[in-house]
Specification:
single chain, 213 residues, Rossmann fold, DNA polymerase, domain 1
């Protein structure tokens, strides 16, 4: 098995974007008259699709959840998305992977056009052959990755999913990719990633090339 295609999560894997995300949740809670939550609680919302988070918070009120998602996305698209930067070592990692002829893609639960605009604003788009995200037809990580594999004609047995949360690992497993790789610099932790069944854990971006070659 030779890996050729690397699918990366975005928030918590490529980008340190927590401040913009947390401020977007705080703004949404204020607008929706919902009690503010602690940073610890808010951090658990980074990674899962917004649909999952707000449906859980709404306790069955679909109209409330839909309005909350719209409020969040409006704020995030105008302010929150710009409060992000690559983690230390990410740019060097991407350059090294390019040098060794890997195909790099983004597969994120973030809304697809927002992910594309965000990476463009940060001058990172050119590192990736495709940027795939949440759409009405695919909002779970499993469905986003499925779409990404199909549109890029990437075979699962030559592909890996790389991310910081259990959703990334589960999405990779449900698409039968060759490797699921958990990163420890993001918003998940070792216990979460191990329990999800991650094949490999890495603590620094530069370790990725070492373990897949």
């Amino acid at each position: 098995m030779i890996l050729k295609n690397l699918f990366f999560d975005l928030d918590g894997t490529i980008l340190e974007s927590s401040r913009g995300i947390l401020n977007s949740f705080r703004y949404t809670f204020d607008e929706m008259k919902y009690p503010q939550l602690s940073d610890t609680e808010l951090n658990t919302f980074i990674g899962p699709p917004l649909e999952v988070t707000f449906e859980t918070l709404s306790k069955g009120d679909d109209a409330w959840a839909k309005k909350a998602i719209m409020t969040y996305r409006q704020y995030y698209a105008t302010k929150g998305m710009f409060d992000a930067k690559p983690y230390d070592g990410i740019l060097e990692m991407l350059e090294d992977l390019h040098h060794h002829n890997y195909n790099l893609f983004i597969a994120t639960s973030k809304k697809e056009d927002v992910a594309q605009n965000m990476l463009s604003e940060l001058n990172l788009s050119h590192h990736f052959k495709g940027i795939f995200g949440n759409t009405p037809q695919a909002h779970s990580k499993t469905l986003v990755l499925k779409k990404s594999l199909e549109l890029t004609q990437s075979t699962p047995n030559t592909s890996a999913m790389i991310g910081d949360r259990k959703f990334d690992i589960i999405g990779g497993q449900e698409n039968n990719v060759a490797k699921t790789i958990g990163v420890l610099w993001g918003f998940g932790d070792e216990t979460e990633l191990k329990n999800a069944g991650s094949n490999i854990l890495i603590a620094h971006p530069q370790q990725l090339l070492e373990i897949i070659r």
